[in-house]
């Protein structure tokens, strides 16, 4: 227990000092993806539902944020709220339909809905199609109290949003509601027979996951000041699956580790063009065949074996 | 010139033909997906990449070895099918005992690798494939390019042949039995693992055959299967994977629906299949031809 507290303290210091050692925009992007991956993992790791269309929440939230802040000229807080609310609404509609099927069909249905949203975003006027929604102004937060033009200041805002989202997920998993979710994951029929209406729990978890993905997506739009079709595409849905998988499904830290690994990798490999996709694909293959527990899962296993000896 | 609901017949029938052709590809691809899923319990995300490989195989055979289209129609699916068998032996075989989602993720990764490599070698802009039967017929109400007519007929023949092979032959009976209860079939002395490998090879060859047929219509490009496979997933959800005939009917039907949407409300033509999917999920969640379990 003490070791755990120490670890948290060290992580907190690292997180607070990080913008003085690394490029803040890179850190903020990584944090947004980490939150996105955690939101995805909430659904797969703890409810056993694999959504292969999570980009539809991440990407549309970016558009919602951009439209509210740029076209309607409103404060960024309302933009974030619109992003989260919009993503939750998309999640409510698609989720209500998708949970009518189980297993692999669920993945295909979410993928198909995400593709539908993608095509919609290609054509809708407010997304500006291929150009994307560019030049979203970075406005000061809390009525001018926090100036966000400075990357380092914004970093702490993003860190706070990330910590908020992460704690929310931790809370959800460790609440009675979370226990029911895990029961449904492990044995849906039994949970149902105990009087839990599985579908309602699944839908609520889906909406929560969508809302958190939306929080990540609108925060990313706030940081990078644009929202593009890439964030709604099937490739993005695949990327978040990869992040969670690399880090370790069903572990609460895994997706964060996975997101940092993948974003760092993309940063270094950006110049190689198509090879980013080839390498990502190869990682999928290697992980599924050999390291299904992911980095964090394998490390925990190794640690436990060491302790046992 | 008579008009139908304010739409010129040329436009209407032209789009219907296009829809029928798209439907032919949906039918062939969803058929392969259903056959593979039935036997392997894996949703083959690589299907789009293998379709693309079929088109590329035909294009390379023509460019490098001067192999005519009609020979490619046989050779390309065999090459790609053999590639599929290698994949099955090396990788897919190892994950049958796991949850479905791992097969989905593995084949998704493979699709990224294959499409990325083709894109790296040949770029993402397409290469044209010469039309093997140019010309066409004027049917009075529309102009029918011969090759397009041929594709629709060929796809129908391929689909029905697959249906016959699975529902009416001895090998097909083994296949259906092994889908139902592999342990029992194995106890009867049938080599089930080999049957599984063979099924995957056949499903992949079917995708490649669709790719060869598509080559003269579309540009041969590394990413030609990326969006297609997503639409085919929706087709599979709509039809349900329980019945072979169901896949064929759903594929062609949705192609027509898409064609009609292009005539009457073009902006929705990209999304109409997904809307149909949402409606089917509302009304009959198991899919039009699926069994409710």
Protein described:
The complex is a heterodimer of chains A (309) and B (293). By secondary structure, chain A is mainly alpha-helical. Chain A has a domain at 22-232. Chain A has helices at 2-17, 24-47, 55-71, 76-98, 103-123, 151-173, 176-186, 188-193, 198-224, 234-247, 254-269, 275-290, 294-308. The longest helix of chain A has 27 residues, at 198-224. Chain A starts with a helix and ends with a helix. The model of chain A has no long low-confidence stretch (mean pLDDT 90). By secondary structure, chain B is an all-alpha fold. Chain B has a domain at 23-224. Helix content of chain B is 70%, strand content 2%. Chain B is built from 11 helices and 2 strands; from the N terminus they run ααααββααααααα. In chain B, strands 1-2 form a two-stranded antiparallel ribbon. In chain B, strand 1 (136-138) and strand 2 (143-145) form a beta hairpin. The mean pLDDT of chain B is 89. The A-B interface holds A 50, 52, 97-98, 100-101, 103-105, 107-109, 111-113, 115-116, 119-120, 122-123, 234, 238, 241, 245, 273-275, 277-278, 280-285, 288-289, 292 and B 43, 91, 94-95, 98, 100-102, 104-106, 108-117, 119-120, 226-227, 230-231, 233-234, 236-237, 267, 270-271, 274-275, 277-278, 281-282, 285-286.
Number of DSSP strand runs of chain B:
2
User: Could you give the count of β-strands of chain A?
Assistant: 0
The low-confidence runs of chain A, each spanning 5 or more residues with pLDDT under 50, are: none
Please trace the helix and strand order of chain A, writing H or E for each element.
HHHHHHHHHHHHH
Mean pLDDT across all amino acids of chain B:
89
Please state the average pLDDT score of chain A.
90
Order of helices and strands of chain B: HHHHEEHHHHHHH
Q: Main sheet of chain B?
A: 2 strands, antiparallel
Q: How would you sum up the major sheet of chain A? A: none
Shape of chain A: globular
Oligomer: heterodimer
The rough form of chain B would be described as globular
- The tally of helices of chain A reads 13
- Largest interface, C-beta closer than 8 angstroms, per-chain residues: A-B, 39 and 42 residues
Determine the N-to-C terminus distance of chain A. Answer: 20 Å
Please work out how many helical segments of chain B DSSP would assign: 11
Helix-and-strand structural type of chain B: mainly alpha
Structural class of chain A: mainly alpha
Strand proportion of chain B: under 5%
């Amino acid at each position: 227990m003490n070791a755990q507290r120490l670890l948290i303290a060290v992580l907190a210091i690292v997180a607070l000092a990080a913008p003085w050692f690394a490029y803040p925009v890179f850190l903020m992007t990584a944090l947004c993806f980490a939150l996105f991956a955690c939101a995805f993992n909430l659904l797969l790791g703890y409810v056993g539902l694999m959504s292969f269309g999570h980009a539809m929440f991440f990407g549309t939230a970016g558009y919602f944020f951009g439209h509210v802040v740029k076209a309607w000229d409103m404060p960024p807080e309302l933009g974030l709220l619109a992003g989260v609310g919009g993503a939750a609404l998309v999640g409510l509609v698609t989720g209500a339909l998708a949970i009518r099927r189980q297993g692999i069909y669920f993945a295909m249905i979410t993928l198909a809905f995400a593709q539908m949203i993608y095509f919609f975003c290609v054509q809708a006027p407010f997304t500006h199609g291929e150009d994307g929604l560019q030049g979203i102004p970075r406005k000061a937060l809390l009525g001018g109290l926090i100036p966000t033009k400075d990357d380092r200041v914004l970093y702490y805002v993003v860190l706070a949003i990330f910590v908020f989202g992460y704690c929310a997920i931790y809370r959800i998993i460790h609440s009675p509601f979370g226990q029911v979710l895990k029961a449904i994951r492990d044995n849906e029929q039994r949970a149902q027979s105990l009087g839990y209406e599985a579908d309602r729990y699944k839908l609520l978890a889906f909406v929560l996951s969508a809302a958190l993905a939306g929080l990540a997506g609108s925060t990313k739009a706030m940081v990078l000041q644009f929202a593009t079709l890439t964030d709604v595409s099937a490739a993005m849905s695949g990327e978040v699956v990869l992040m969670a998988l690399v880090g370790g499904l069903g572990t609460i830290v895994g997706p964060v580790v996975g997101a940092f690994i993948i974003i760092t990798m993309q940063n270094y490999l950006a110049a190689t063009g198509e090879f980013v996709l080839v390498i990502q694909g190869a990682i999928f293959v290697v992980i599924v065949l050999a390291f299904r527990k992911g980095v964090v899962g394998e490390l925990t296993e190794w640690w436990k074996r060491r302790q046992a000896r | 010139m008579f008009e139908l609901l304010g739409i010129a017949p040329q436009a209407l029938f032209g789009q219907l033909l296009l829809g029928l052709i798209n439907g032919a590809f949906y039918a062939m691809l969803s058929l392969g997906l259903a056959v593979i899923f039935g036997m392997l319990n894996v949703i083959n995300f690589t299907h789009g990449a293998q379709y693309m490989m079929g088109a590329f195989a035909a294009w390379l055979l023509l460019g490098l070895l001067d192999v005519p289209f009609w020979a490619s129609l046989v050779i390309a699916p065999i090459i790609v099918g053999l590639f599929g068998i290698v994949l099955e032996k090396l990788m897919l075989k190892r994950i049958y005992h796991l949850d479905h989602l791992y097969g989905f993720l593995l084949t998704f990764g493979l699709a990224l690798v294959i499409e990325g490599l083709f894109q790296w070698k040949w770029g993402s802009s397409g290469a044209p494939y010469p039309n093997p039967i140019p010309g066409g017929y004027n049917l009075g109400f529309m102009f029918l390019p011969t090759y397009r007519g041929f594709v629709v007929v060929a796809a129908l023949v391929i689909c029905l042949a697959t249906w016959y092979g699975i529902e009416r032959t001895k090998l097909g009976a083994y296949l259906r039995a092994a889908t139902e209860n592999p342990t029992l079939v194995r106890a009867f002395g049938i080599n089930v693992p080999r049957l599984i490998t063979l099924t995957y090879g056949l499903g992949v060859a079917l995708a490649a055959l669709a790719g060869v047929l598509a080559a003269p219509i579309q540009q041969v490009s590394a990413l030609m299967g990326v969006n297609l496979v997503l639409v085919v997933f929706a087709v599979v959800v709509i039809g349900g994977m329980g019945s072979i005939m169901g896949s064929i009917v759903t594929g062609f039907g949705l192609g027509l629906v898409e064609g009609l949407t292009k005539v009457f409300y073009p902006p929705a033509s990209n999304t109409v299949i997904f809307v149909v999917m949402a409606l089917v999920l509302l009304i009959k969640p198991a899919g039009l031809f699926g069994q409710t379990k």
